[in-house]
Structures are given as structure tokens and as C-alpha cells.
């Protein structure tokens, strides 16, 4: 049976990896490890189809070490023993262990000494957060790297390579793909290169040649192949971003009907990850402290939508959209952190005051660290007048509370009370 295109197009060396420049780019950690031949076991975590297996395969190809693949959920301890024996006989083996978050204690106990000896370089792959789902004993023996969704440009580049590659790709077929079809294929899969390549292969192999012997891939063919509709009226390719922008601006402007309209466009296009991400941003950026419970409701709605999938996912999403659109609005926290970041990026930071510095290590007292710090819980109102900002920023104000919601109105009252206490302390 012919292997899928996504399998055939896996990178053979680190130079062929698409995306993940923060890990495999020039001077970055995984490339440095490969070049120095100083590999250590690692865990790669991120969404499906973002290159976890590809990176493992490329590391093996670049180092010429043996490469084996197992699944922590379905492969047995005996399978691990076979890999360990191979490593003992022939040297280092790179083991890609998929779904590592499902590794049971028996397999873990067997694997740990081999990781410590370096005979097996394990590359664990998972879509789960390893800091939550993976046993500390494994975490302490590995480095953890996040793998991110690929950009549209990176996916487009990969698709074009696959269409040209006569050895591993689809170069033996004479294919013409419309620009908007290629764009939709790169967008509809939401950063999942495996899904994009699978969609391309299906489109090519299920489309008949025309009278000129050419396989013509139109937008309609690609939509059918990936089972995602493109946004309508997308003549210049900008409708995708225009609709997302319009959704956020409609919610920000408290127009619930417009918000539902633009959300419906994204729902019809099947863009659950994009819609979910945007609603989370809106909840914290535009509603913020005016109605903090809106963010909690949005998170719950997104979690429900992800479990349900379309078409039912539209129901919790609609609840979140109506709630966000009709909530009071505040961007005070968002603008406050940006103002603080602006100072830091301009080099306007200053020294941490001595009385706030860590005083838990030997010799800290002799350096004046932590001396004269006053513990607020020892004072009335759980507050005491002392300086917290560096000297050069001690009068700087970042947070300007608004009064568009009850919660932030209460925060403003507390802020004003503290200012009153400060003024009284200076008199």
C-alpha cells in the first residue's frame, strides 16, 4: 500500500524541517544539539500536524542514528525492550514515543535508566501540556519544547514542494492549482501540515485530467477535499482576515447582531480554532475587568464547543458571543501591561529596591537585601506605605481603572482608597 503523502514528505534532515524556526533555525537549541551531536531526550508538545514527528525524523537523519517509533498507549514493554537491546548492541537509538502522556508506570520504570545512560534518546510527542500530564520523573530527564502551528506561508511552501517533488511527492502528476484554492488549502487546515498534505493528495488523485491531460484543482475541488467551505466573496484573499476583524470590532462596539453575523461566516467555513482563539482574545482585551466572569464563560463555551464539534459547537459559541457583545467593556488591564512593556523595551526599568529583594539566601543580610521590608498583613487594612517601583519609576502610573462595570468600579474605589492612604502618610 502506498504511504500517505504527509508520511513520504517528512524531512530527512534538520534543514528540510518546515517551520519551528524557534527550535531548528540557525543558532536555535535543537539545531545546536544536532550540530554538536549532543542530543538529550526531549518532549515536543503542540497541536496535531505541526511537525513533532518530522523533527524527530530529521534529528535522526541529520545524526545518522537509528530511528524507531512507538506509541506509549498501544505498544508494550516488550517493544521498548527490543529498542533497548538494539541500542545496547549498535549504539544510540532515537526513539519517537508518541502520546507520551499515556506512558504507564511499568514502561516508565523500564525506560528511565536507558534515558539516564543516553543509550536511548527519547523524543516524546504529545498534544497535551506536559507540565500537567507527564510524570515528573520523565520531565526531570527531558527538555520540553513547544511546537507551534505552521503559518499559511509555511504550509503553502510545503504544498508547492510536494507538487514538484517527483521522488516523494506528486511531481509525476501534471497539476494546476488555482491561487485561491491553494490559499484555502493552507488556511482551512489551521496550521496542520499533515491535514493540508492529505487534502492535497486526495484532491489530486480524485480529480480527473482534462482534455489537455492536466489535473485542475479549483477552489470547489479543494473545499470538497478538506470538507471546509471558503469564506464567500474572497476575491483578493483578504476576506478571512476581514471577517475576523469585523467580528472583534462588532463585539467591541456592542453590536450583538453584527457579531453573530460574522461569527456565522466563520462557523459556516468550519473555522472553530480561529473563532475560539479570537473570542478568548476579545474576552480579555475588550471586556476585561468590566466583567471578568465573561472570560470564564467564554473558556467554558470554547471547551464545550471543542468537545462537541460542529454543528452543535455553534450553540455554546453563540452563548459566548451574545454575552461578550452585551457585556460592559474595558481595555484598562490590556493598555496597562502594554505601557509597562513599553518602559521595559525602552530600557526604562531601574533596580529593584533593596527592601524588596530576595532575602532567603546566606549573606543576603550583609548585602542589605530584604532589610526594612514591611509585611502588609501586619498592618491595618492589610496595607502599609512603602515604595515598590524602582527609584526612577516610583511615580509611574500604568493602570487607569474605568467604571464601565461593577467589578472594575470596585477596583477603582480600592485604587482611590490606597491613593488617599498614601497622601495621608506623606502629611
UniProtKB/TrEMBL annotation:
It comes from the Bacteria. One of its GO terms (biological process) is DNA synthesis involved in DNA repair. One of its GO terms (molecular function) is DNA binding. Pfam families: AAA, AAA_assoc_2, MgsA_C. Keywords: ATP-binding, Nucleotide-binding. It comes from Pilibacter termitis. Gene3D superfamilies: 1.10.8.60, 1.20.272.10, DNA polymerase III clamp loader subunits, C-terminal domain (1.10.3710.10), P-loop containing nucleotide triphosphate hydrolases (3.40.50.300). The keyword Nucleotidyltransferase does not apply. The keyword Manganese does not apply. Belongs to the AAA ATPase family. RarA/MGS1/WRNIP1 subfamily. Residues 38-150 form the AAA+ ATPase domain. This is Replication-associated recombination protein A.
